[in-house]
From TrEMBL:
Belongs to the D-isomer specific 2-hydroxyacid dehydrogenase family. This is Phosphoglycerate dehydrogenase. The keyword Acyltransferase does not apply. It comes from Leuconostoc falkenbergense. Coiled coil: none annotated. Residues 9-310 form the D-isomer specific 2-hydroxyacid dehydrogenase catalytic domain.
């Protein structure tokens, strides 16, 4: 019987071709709802998911499951311990999206500096003179602090190298380079004009940026979060933005996604909000599909995956 690969969401054709060329049946589902996935993926040997929660209950509904592939870097929504207990590999695509996320991060830094969103909106609101009371800011000569200096953080620093900014970073596992100084965590918040969050979502990083950190930041500093919403204490951020403790924020991720329009962040003028689009490009989607499906094929052919996030006993 041909093994099934279940895709709750469709993926680029290049990824599906890798699976069909390897002799597998591809089943494209109708969405990410828990019960939908349990029903549609009941016969799956592998599943390729996005950011939706995937726990032991769902795994148990897929008794043939051998590998859960995550289309992206973060795997916090997957119960990795539950997968390991069941002998299921969890893999991700860490190399596919670093450059794209870094591009988006720098784009959002520039957008909040130049007030691009509000100025563009003002034209649609027939308010040409909005610009007079809301001038932008140059980033030349400013200090950019990067929290987390892994693949994405390093790419951000590289892409900022032509903007004449000083780049500092905090990462307990990184060392200073010719262009980036590794500093302690408090120095990032106290001295950076832009604090860029590129941390993984782990128990020790969850809600690790809150009122204390915002009070350390300069009143004219900005926070940019392209990592995970759970890292920020959202209510503390709202308070800091309302009280002008910081100048503004650019956020691509939130504790609740999709972000409800009733969330207080939506009503603030000193924020740029985007719907988790950091790696949402044609090229990145194709690279993620290739990397994820290649690891699915490896596992189902009895080989070691290249990007496993858990270890299974032989």
């Amino acid at each position: 019987m041909t093994e099934q690969i279940y895709l709750p969401d469709d993926i680029p054709a290049v990824g599906k071709k890798i699976l069909t060329d390897a002799g597998f049946e591809v089943v494209v589902g109708t969405g990410r709802a828990r019960e939908t996935m349990k029903t549609e993926g009941a016969n799956a040997s592998a599943v390729l998911i996005g950011t939706q929660p995937f726990d032991g209950d769902i795994m148990d509904a897929m008794p043939n499951l051998k590998v859960i592939a995550r289309n992206g870097v973060g795997y916090d929504a997957v119960d990795v311990d539950a997968a390991t207990e069941r002998g299921i590999y969890v893999v991700n695509t860490p190399k596919a999206l670093s450059g794209s996320v870094a591009e988006t991060a720098v784009s959002e830094l520039l957008a909040i500096s130049k007030n691009l969103y509000q100025d563009a909106k003002a034209i649609h609101d027939a308010n040409w003179n909005y610009r007079k009371s809301q001038p932008g800011r140059d980033i030349e000569g400013k200090t950019v602090g990067i929290l987390g200096f892994g693949r994405i953080g390093q790419q951000v620093a590289k892409k900022l190298s032509g903007f004449d900014v000083k780049v500092i970073a905090y990462d307990p596992f990184a060392k200073s380079t010719d262009t980036v100084s590794i500093v302690d965590r408090d120095t990032i918040f106290k001295t950076a004009d832009y604090v860029m969050v590129h941390l993984p979502a782990l128990p020790e990083t969850e809600h690790s940026i809150g009122a204390a950190e915002f009070k350390m930041m300069k009143n004219d500093a900005y926070l940019i979060n392209m990592a995970r919403g759970v890292i920020i204490v959202e209510s503390d951020l709202v308070a800091a933005l309302k009280n002008n403790e910081i100048a503004g924020a650019a956020l691509d991720v939130f504790e609740e996604e999709p972000l409800p329009v009733t969330n207080p962040l939506v009503s603030l003028e000193n924020v740029l909000l985007t719907p988790h689009i950091a790696s949402n490009t044609i090229e990145t989607k194709a690279r993620m599909a290739v990397d994820a499906t290649n690891d699915i094929v490896r596992v189902l052919k009895g080989e070691q995956p290249e990007a496993a996030v858990n270890h299974l006993e032989a």
